[in-house]
Amino acid sequence: MFTNRILLFTATASLGFTLWGRSSPTQITWTFDRLDRIGGHSTTVLGSPQVVDTPLGKAVQFDGVDDALFVNVHPLAGAKAFTWEAIFRPDGGKMEQRWFHLAEQDPKTGADTGNRMLFEIRVAGDQWYLDSFVMGGTGSKALMNREKLHPLKAWYHVASVYDGRVFRNYVNGVEEGSGEVQFTPQGKGRSSVGVRINKVDYFQGAVRLARFTPRALAVSEFLKVKGVN
Q: Whole-prediction pTM value?
């Protein structure tokens, strides 16, 4: 076990984050260090997002006007439980911003079904708060705590976790909301980063990394980010 941990640290330290413990072969990691491919998948690029250097490594920066990336895969399709993590930097802009959207599609028509998973932010002056949402089948739950404000223009780790009964969200490893929901696993679909799937509510800021795990992780298993948590 000790050897596995050393090898994993060596492989990831140069990316600006560290994974402690064993990684699961079913985990999916998307590193935002290029525009044409994310997580091994080709992208559709809207506007002019930029790959920029940051203290955590390369990231994709979005202007909040018309920048976005679309990927034709839903990385948590079929998951009965899940942990969705992301490392991002919100910089300001409009009040409502949907910066990561996983959408189920009808296998016959290719249309979005409305079943979805979301990361959003609400900007309040020079601060922001997290909005997480999940909808699958007849169950849905939004988590948004207006009292949990965070400064803009800093890097954060956020997570949405569902254990099969309770949906929770976290900022830098601190739980901000929770609620019970009966969630039906979603089918295959697509993802958008930097905007809502229907191209409204653009994001102003940068995204460094996302990790998708088809089980509920404990906080101790979250990504540990240098300079963040």
A: 0.89
